[in-house]
């Protein structure tokens, strides 16, 4: 099986390559803006998906491919929305067109961020992990009020990330209507975490505003979070497992991918070794995020606050039933793994996931990530 992977050096991409290396009959072509120094058994192709020049490169890369896994997605620079639009929406259009023209199975990494906001606030009775995985962990059932893949994919309007994920979904809808024979699968994971992405996630969401080396090493007296910050995550290795299952079965359509338990402010505080949770109004967090982003003190725009507090809780029942998928890593474990890696400055030997250097921050224009 010949598999082309875009964004193969990013968060999901590195996890997928690790998994595909265990599949003896798979040949991998990685399409990225900046190929790594070591080939690692992958045939690397350099292409900037934000530009029309990527089209002939993609057409050559996907020739003879059985599947194309589209993981490339720019998260930064958040102050240049036109660049993110070109890379994410137009880039998806170029990849999808090339894949379908070649007759390949297209697996697109969408997101929980493509979904419309929660119908109602997350109820107080929604169980969270309390800082640890256990009976409510990776193998648990769905939380109360979890939604399936039929929940509207109209996004959170105030989030640029969400709007672009929605735009990518709509263009795939159009392509599938035009080509009824097209084979397209869409994965909609929660927040994707792994140790290898520790430095990247720190750079792209916190920048230099937070001393990452102190994360989980210094016990803060309190940590402010809105009560509405109730969310789901999934480990990158478990998403990679789902991708392989989609490739092997030829599955099409959307699949939600999350692990348990649901995480809330208490879980985040315990993972950070904070003494107590200080719940604050969402409006205050939005105002702080907006002011510091506009002042370029940190790279996270206010839309990410809205995503964290508005996206629905997901059910992964379809992936369990149709793919036989079951996450192995619980939410609390994945969160602590990420935070420890952020504190240690760990990363991976790829340009987007490069480890933090010393006490500073490694600057980079963007990331091949989802």
From TrEMBL:
SUPFAM superfamilies: NAD(P)-binding Rossmann-fold domains. It comes from Pseudokineococcus lusitanus. Residues 118-147, 347-370 are annotated as: Disordered. Residues 3-252 form the NAD-dependent epimerase/dehydratase domain. It comes from the Bacteria. Gene3D superfamilies: NAD(P)-binding Rossmann-like Domain. Residues 127-139 have a biased composition (Gly residues). GO terms for molecular function: aldehyde dehydrogenase (NAD+) activity. GO terms for cellular component: cytoplasm. This is Nucleoside-diphosphate-sugar epimerase.
